[in-house]
Amino acid sequence: MTILLHVCCAPDATTAVERLRQENYEPVLFFYNPNIQPQEEYLRRLEATKKLAELWKLRLIVDGSGEDLWREEIKGLEELKEGSIRCQKCIEFRLRRTAEYARANGFEIFSNTLTTSPKKNSQLILEIGTKAAHEFQIQYLHRDFKKKNGFLRSVQLSKELQLYRQNYCGCIYSLKTPKREKGISDENICSDE
Ligand code: SF4
Q1: Among 99, 106, 110, 189, which has the minimal tally of Cβ within 10 Å of its Cβ?
Q2: In a domain, 106, yes or no
Q3: Is 125 in the pocket of ligand 1 (CB under 6 A)?
Q4: What domain range includes position 125?
Q5: Ligand 1 neighbour 92 (Cβ under 6 A)
Q6: In this structure, what is the dihedral angle of CA atoms 33, 149, 187, 70, given to the nearest 10 degrees?
Q7: Cis preceding-peptide flag for 118 (omega within 30 of 0)
Q8: If you measure from the C-alpha of residue 1 to the centroid of ligand 1, how many angstroms do you get, rounded to a whole number?
């Protein structure tokens, strides 16, 4: 069955795609990340996703819209810490658009790659995905891809495939936060986390 898979970045997508294919889903990648700043970084992550799509013969849809709307969505929350309500709104914004696109383009079900990251709250993503699915009347498939060493598997696959792996979540505010303040090391830095 075809599934629309929101991709936050190529490394996180590796585990998600591998596992979904094991369940007989055929993911169509949906790259919608107006949160990624600066532009060079956005393009770097997009290129890595294109590379993965080519290597693994995946269909990739790129939606480059929404930057102004995203800024509006997080307005006033810029200085909050990573993992705060700003991130909740950011994730809601992207998954809601994914559900909307899925509904408008004949997909029956959607999912996302965010849960590959050890820093993403799976329960929160479940709630956000379920809400978006309800709003657009399609199904949401929730999987916590970090389980069963899913994150380590993504690190391994990204190395094998030589995919670019970033060292901050995405927005300029996460870029400004020094790693030591986030309490993370180089080894467990996540992709879109
Ligand atoms: S830290 Fe990540 S999830 Fe949070 S607002 Fe920035 S890009 Fe979005």
Answers
A1: 106
A2: yes
A3: no
A4: 2-188
A5: no
A6: 10
A7: no
A8: 31
- Predicted confidence at residue 80, as pLDDT, reads 95
The pLDDT, as a whole number, for residue 186 is 33
Enter the tokens of residue 185.
């090391």
Checking 38-43 for CB contacts under 8 A at 24+ apart, the result is: 38/172, 41/166, 41/170
90 lines ligand 1 (CB under 6 A): yes
Query: How many domains does the chain fold into?
Result: 1
Quote the CA–CA distance of 73 and 65 in Å, as a whole number. 14
Locate 93 and state its tokens.
């914004």
Q: Is residue 54 part of a domain?
A: yes
Which residue out of 173, 177, 182 has the highest number of ligand 1 atoms within 8 Å of its CB and is therefore the one to mutate?
Answer: 173
Residue 175: predicted pLDDT: 87
Q: How far apart are CA 164 and CA 106, in angstroms?
A: 31
CATH code for position 41: 3.40.50.620
Beta carbon of 35 within 6 Å of any ligand 1 atom: yes
- Does residue 193 form part of some domain? no
